[in-house]
TrEMBL record:
Protein name as annotated: Inositol-1-monophosphatase
Keyword DNA-binding: no
Pfam families per the UniProt record, alphabetical: Inositol_P
Binding site for Mg(2+): 35, 55, 57-58, 181
Region (Disordered): 234-254
Cofactor (UniProt): Mg(2+)
One GO biological process term: inositol biosynthetic process
Metabolic or biological pathway, per its Swiss-Prot or TrEMBL entry: Polyol metabolism; myo-inositol biosynthesis; myo-inositol from D-glucose 6-phosphate: step 2/2
EC category: hydrolase
Organism whose genome encodes this protein: Amphilophus citrinellus (Midas cichlid)
Domain of life the protein comes from: Eukaryota
InterPro entries: IMPase, Inositol_monoP_metal-BS, Inositol_monoPase_Li-sen, Inositol_monophosphatase-like, Inositol_monophosphatase_CS
Catalytic activity: 1D-myo-inositol 5-phosphate + H2O = myo-inositol + phosphate; scyllo-inositol 1-phosphate + H2O = scyllo-inositol + phosphate; 1D-myo-inositol 2-phosphate + H2O = myo-inositol + phosphate; beta-D-fructose 1-phosphate + H2O = D-fructose + phosphate
Record-level Gene Ontology MF annotations: fructose-1-phosphatase activity; glucose-1-phosphatase activity; glucose-6-phosphatase activity; glycerol-2-phosphatase activity; inositol monophosphate 1-phosphatase activity; inositol monophosphate 3-phosphatase activity; inositol monophosphate 4-phosphatase activity; metal ion binding
Length: 254
């Protein structure tokens, strides 16, 4: 069987060559956006150049506490998405227009559109500002009282989205995520037949740090009416306008 990773890399190089209109003799030029490089002061701006968006560990708090799910995410903007759940040894992959897979098996979102029968995943995030925490709890209360069948959280944004793609949960929403948390899994959700939406409706903007990933427009729109929206500093804001999340500081001290 052909190695899917090798064909992915061949395709990535072809995309980079096309973008840069380089001949096969010239090395290709990829750009990178990674959680750690941005934390070290590098830019978080998407350009026309093919860009790998990387989160080496998604679910850092789980990792630090050796708790359940930890994933690594890799995305070549809009072309490929890879999320690896290392403890479960599950490799979620998607290529634009070619479907989404887990360890090679095709993924399909749940067909359940009644929100009362839905499991909704979310996270409490990393911000401990009491005003932010209040809004997160207001949203959670509203979602529970829709009512939904259940609320869950894997502790990894990427894993929550892969659960939507797998049909195990109907929707995931969060305000406070970063582009590297959700880029790869966004493609996996849409290639599995799901939808992505901003928490106030309309198209999702991966730099806005707000996301709904759902099995259907119907479920996503019910959540839009329910979530108490706010806008954290964008990922592509100037470094001086970004703020460090409090739990990440403590996680890094470990
Ligand atoms: O910091 P990591 O572990 O890469 O990512 C975390 C997000 O920053 C946080 O918003 C989210 O709640 C958590 O699930 C996530 O994966
Ligand atoms: Mg992450
Ligand atoms: Mg991370």
């Amino acid at each position: 069987m052909a190695d899917p990773w090798e064909s992915t890399m061949d395709h990535a190089v072809a995309i980079a060559r096309k973008a840069g209109e380089t001949s096969s003799h010239v090395p290709v030029c990829f750009r990178f956006i990674g959680e750690e490089s941005v934390a070290a002061g590098e830019s978080c701006i998407l350009s026309d150049s093919p860009t790998w968006i990387i989160d080496p560990i998604d679910g850092t708090t789980n990792f630090v506490h050796t708790h359940l799910t930890v994933t690594s995410t890799l995305d070549l903007q809009v072309e490929f998405g890879v999320v690896y759940s290392c403890i479960e040894d599950k490799m979620f992959t998607a290529r634009r227009g070619r479907g989404a897979f887990c360890n090679g098996e095709p993924l399909q979102v749940s067909q359940q559109k009644a929100v009362e029968q839905a499991i909704v995943a979310t996270e409490f995030g990393s911000d401990r500002d009491p005003e932010v925490v209040d809004k997160i709890f207001q949203s959670l209360r509203n979602v529970l009282c829709l009512p939904v069948h259940g609320v869950r959280g894997a502790g990894s944004a990427a894993m929550n989205m892969c659960l939507v793609a797998s049909g195990c949960v109907e929707a995931y929403y969060e305000i406070g995520v970063h582009v590297w948390d959700v880029a790869a899994a966004s493609l996996i959700v849409s290639e599995a037949g799901g939808v992505l939406m901003d928490v106030e409706g309309g198209e999702v903007d991966l730099m806005s740090r707000r996301i709904i990933a759902a099995n259907s427009k119907t479920v996503a729109e019910r959540l839009v009416k329910t979530i108490v929206a706010f806008s954290p500093p964008r990922d592509d804001a100037a470094p001086s306008d970004r703020c460090e999340d409090s739990t990440h500081l403590s996680a890094r001290k470990v």
